Amino acid sequence: MFQVLLVATLTGGATAVGAFPFLMVREIGRSTYDTLLGFGAGLMLAAATLGLLPAALRETHDHDVLRPDRLALVIVGFVLGALILFFLDRLIPHQHAGGHHHHMHEAPESDEHSDCNHRSVDERARHHGLLILGAMSLHRLPEGFAIGAGFATAEYRALGILLTVATALQNAIEGAIMAAPLKKGGFSAGRLFVSVAATGLAIPVAAVCGYLFSQQIPTAMPLTLALAAGALIYLTCSEIIPESHSHGHERRATVGVLSGFLLIIIVKTLVGRD
Questions:
Q1: Which residue ranges make up each domain of the chain?
Q2: Any bridge partners for residue 66, and if so which?
Q3: 62: which DSSP letter?
Q4: CA atoms within 13 A on the CB side of 271
Q5: How confident is the model at residue 261 (pLDDT cuts 50, 70, 90)?
Q6: I need a labelling partner for 202 at 20 to 30 A (CA). Which of 18, 85, 188, 210 fits?
Q7: Which has the closest alpha carbon to 40: 170, 144, 168, 136?
């Protein structure tokens, strides 16, 4: 348990790494932003499809004999993971990163936040940045749950390492995404750093939940792994990839996605089989 908590805390702390550049610079170029976002999407998509789902599907066979009940758990888990993110995305008030481009480049007063009576572009950026904090905190839940499930047994230790690497890199990228509008909105270096770093606290909490669930109900491992995979794939396809491709830098974002995916292929090869 201590190992899982330590690894998850360090992984969540990677979010603060992405905020470091904004302690010195004011903003990041849109093309760079979209490339990094695509890279993060590739990391998470590969972690789900090359790590979580194969591990879940291996649990559906017992001595090379298909277990229909376990296959049903994988299907239910995958669908449930996607549905959880679907409903959380709508029930919890937050703002996706989609408006980030407008605030960073000083959109006119008629933008999507004009009804908030912001007195300046910087104030709108600050408001938008705080809403992004809520969105990114929400995203940490499936990431942490997946890490906890990956470290639940010695059999899946390699999977846990793979998910930790992918999530840590993704968190560093998202740290920059959160920091940019807050910096433009006038946050001091200390306040910006603490605000962004705090979002990573959701990961160790979710990781403990994933670990305990998998430990207490080992027969539900196919469900647990597939649930984490469904949540990550929904998150990547519903938010991260569309956002990275919505500002005219589709090729750069696609290169980012492919690069992230390729990195996970390399990491998976190096850490060995589950």
A1: 2-89+138-171+189-271
A2: 61
A3: E
A4: 22
A5: very high
A6: 188
A7: 170
Distance from C-alpha of 108 to C-alpha of 114, rounded to nearest angstrom: 9
* Position 36, amino acid: L
Place of tokens 């950026």: 125
Letter for the amino acid at 146?
Answer: A
> Which residue is listed with tokens 């000083």?
106
Per the DSSP assignment, residues forming a β-bridge with 61 are 66
Asked if residues 134 and 7 have their Cβ atoms less than 8 Å apart, the reply is no
pTM: 0.72
The structure tokens 């572009």 sit at 121
- Structure confidence by residue, pLDDT tens digits, 71-89: 999 999 999 989 988 887 7
Interatomic CA distance for residues 74 and 59, integer angstroms? 9
Nearest Cα residue to 35 out of 265, 248, 262, 264: 248
Output the DSSP codes for 51-88: IIHHHHHHTTEETTEE-HHHHHHHHHHHHHHHHHHHHH
User: Which of these, 129, 139, 148, 206, lies nearest to 171 by C-alpha position?
Assistant: 139
DSSP state string for 178-219: HHHHHHHTT--HHHHHHHHHHGGGHHHHHHHHHHHHHHH-GG
Of residues 104 and 206, more confidence is placed in: 206
| Choice among 11-20, 101-110, 126-135, 252-261 with the minimum mean pLDDT | 101-110
The pair of structure tokens assigned to 241 is 């990839």
Exposure string of 161-184, with b = 16+ CB inside 10 Å and e = fewer, is bbbbbbbbbbbbbbbbbbbbbbbb
pLDDT 10s digits, 87-97: 877 776 555 54
